[in-house]
Design goal:
Elements (H helix, E strand, L loop, with lengths): L9 H16 L11 E5 L6 H17 L3 E5 L6 H8 L7 E5 L2 H8 L11 E17 L7 H10 L5 E4 L5 H13 L4 E4 L3 H9 L5 E5 H9 L3 E6 L25 E9 L4 H15 L2 H8 L4 E2 L4 H22 L5
Parallel strand pairs: 1-2, 1-3, 5-6, 5-7
Antiparallel strand pairs: 3-9, 4-7, 4-8, 4-9, 4-10
Length: 328
């Protein structure tokens, strides 16, 4: 207790009053998250990316103890969805679930309404699906080396299919052709399904596909695998060599899936999201659930994911320039 004769200095008393008033005036900030999170997917419902996004949303919601709702925003090669997230509040409640379209589009679309690196903050790489180079069963080659030899002996006489100009299968195939100095004609389709159908019919010779969509046709003998575009062989097809080990060191063609937030999002929120992703990525049952479809769970930190984005922006720009690729 202060003695009865004690008096606070006037300036100290005013400071106490101001501090108390401020404490009552400002409500305590709620811990993140305290409401549902939206996960924006730049593709229509259905398909591998959407399917994976919905599984990830469920797992992420369990880790964050709040609903994570998937919202499909297709159109313009993913730029509509990306624009929405880039211009959303940087509060961690609107996130983008994206793919290599994010790093390919800047080379195809000159004036995007956002800056790929400056307007979005990497949270984590979540999953990867390596591409698989497959050929029609009637083609006169059974290995990657034989395919290369045949292509070099027949420049401009072979065709390959893709899901469309500027899609990942197109870009990664062009990267391979540039690395190997091969001349194979590109036949773009309106989607992966018609491209695969024409491969199965023998209209085109080869295609970059995935294990998930190719495996049943490989088992049925209609197409054959030549090489997988990951740095390691897949446990689902351990007998299929990688492109890298077959003479193209470092080559990768990966359909990755990752989460980004609007730039300016609190680093603590980014850390919370990454921690949650890393937690469910370690769940064996979830790993096996995705691996059955050829999807590998990752959980890279934001810095590593950011480096991947930066590297691919440069790499795809060079591929697009050399191959003179134009968007549809």
């Amino acid at each position: 207790m202060f003695p009865l004769s004690f008096r606070f200095p006037r300036h100290a008393l005013m400071a106490l009053v101001s501090t108390a008033a401020l404490a009552f005036a400002l409500p305590a900030q709620a811990a993140y998250p305290d409401r549902p999170v939206r996960l924006i997917v730049p593709f229509s419902a259905g398909g591998t990316v959407d399917f994976t996004a919905r599984l990830v949303a469920t797992q992420l919601g369990q880790q964050l103890a709040t609903p994570v709702v998937v919202e499909n925003v297709p159109g313009a090669g993913g730029t509509l969805a990306t624009t929405r997230v880039a211009k959303s509040a940087a509060d961690g409640y609107t996130l983008l679930f994206t793919t290599p379209n994010h790093t390919i589009n800047p080379s195809l679309i000159p004036k995007l309404p956002f800056d790929t690196e400056k307007d979005l903050a990497p949270v984590s790489l979540v999953a990867e699906i390596p591409e698989l180079l497959v050929a029609h069963s009637a083609q006169p080659y059974n290995t990657f080396a034989e395919f290369v030899a045949y292509a070099k002996a027949n420049p401009g006489k072979m065709n390959y299919a893709s899901a469309g100009n500027g899609t990942l299968p197109h870009i990664t195939m062009e990267l391979l052709l540039q690395r190997m100095a091969l001349q194979i004609n590109h036949v773009p389709y309106r989607g992966a399904a018609p491209a695969l159908n024409d491969l199965l019919s023998g209209v085109v010779a080869v295609k970059m596909d995935t294990i998930a969509t190719s495996s049943q046709h490989i088992k049925g003998g209609r197409i054959k695998p030549l090489a997988i575009a990951s740095l390691k062989r897949s446990p689902l097809m351990p007998e299929v060599p990688t492109v890298a080990e077959s003479g193209v060191p470092g080559y990768q063609g990966i359909l990755w899936m990752g989460i980004l937030a609007p730039a300016g999002t609190d680093p603590a929120v980014i850390a919370t999201l990454h921690k949650a992703i890393a937690a469910f990525a370690r769940v064996p049952a979830f790993q096996q659930q995705l691996k059955a479809d050829g999807v590998d769970l990752v959980a890279s930190d934001p810095q590593t994911f950011g480096k991947l984005i930066h590297t691919e922006l440069t790499q795809w720009a060079e591929v697009v320039r050399k191959s003179n690729i134009k968007a549809d």
